Amino acid sequence: MTAHAISWAPYLPWSVIGLLGLVAFALCIWAFYRQAGGTALRGLAFAILLLILANPSLVIEERDPISDIVVVISDRSQSQSIADRPEQTDQATAHILAELEALENTDTHLIEVKTGSLQEEADGTRLFTALRGRLRSLPRDRIAGVIVISDGQVHDVPSDFQELGIEAPFHLLLTGDEEERDRRLLVSDAPNFAIIGKPVTVTFTVEDQSPEGERGAFANVVLRQDGRLLEQRQVPFDVPQEFEVTLTRRGNSLIEI
Known about the structure:
By secondary structure, the chain is an alpha/beta fold. It is built from 4 helices and 14 strands. It has helices spanning 14-33, 39-54, 85-101, 127-135, and strands at 2-8, 56-62, 68-76, 106-114, 120-121, 124-125, 143-150, 170-174, 183-189, 199-208, 218-225, 228-236, 241-246, 255-256. Strands 4-3-7-8 form a 4-stranded parallel β-sheet, sandwiched between helices. A 3-stranded antiparallel β-sheet has the order 9-10-13, with no helix packed on it. The protein is rod-shaped.
């Protein structure tokens, strides 16, 4: 790409050149008023003199455009395996990559945060940890945007996006269904061991994270021990519940809620 520009390197300060220009203009007006001969030539001479003092030069630049960088993050964590979210994620990722591929001077970097990867730890999906890792190898001033395809269950969102060190738009394509609501099963008390034939108590709570006015009254809970049905019950939300389990054999026992 070739660019043309005019560069100025005045021999005198611009204020002095401007003052000389005003004086020259006043002299030309005075000469025109007096109908003096050669006024036009004098004005042209003054203009050429001022132009010489301004010292212009033509600059021709050969420029190679630097491509923009778009980071696409595809969330493949465990919560993204529910219902038809995998298909939604596949379709959205493929569509975005195709659209970006069609853009000129655009480089695309795809990050997949997969189930069981280092980005998904015991405390949740570490999506921004993966993003920070990729940004370390990219020039920050070329980042044109970040596009995330996720269900929004991300557990390392920064309190301030300026911590990422980029000035680019951040987009989220949310998978799932708009009628879906989040519920959380919290086991607050479960013994590590028990005596055979002696009942032990397990305490759990079902939390409904839906907006006020959209919560149901009860949750249906199924309790199993080693695959055997113990009980079915309806429990209110956000209220701790207890049930008893009695071990009948030695070794590990699987309790399902």
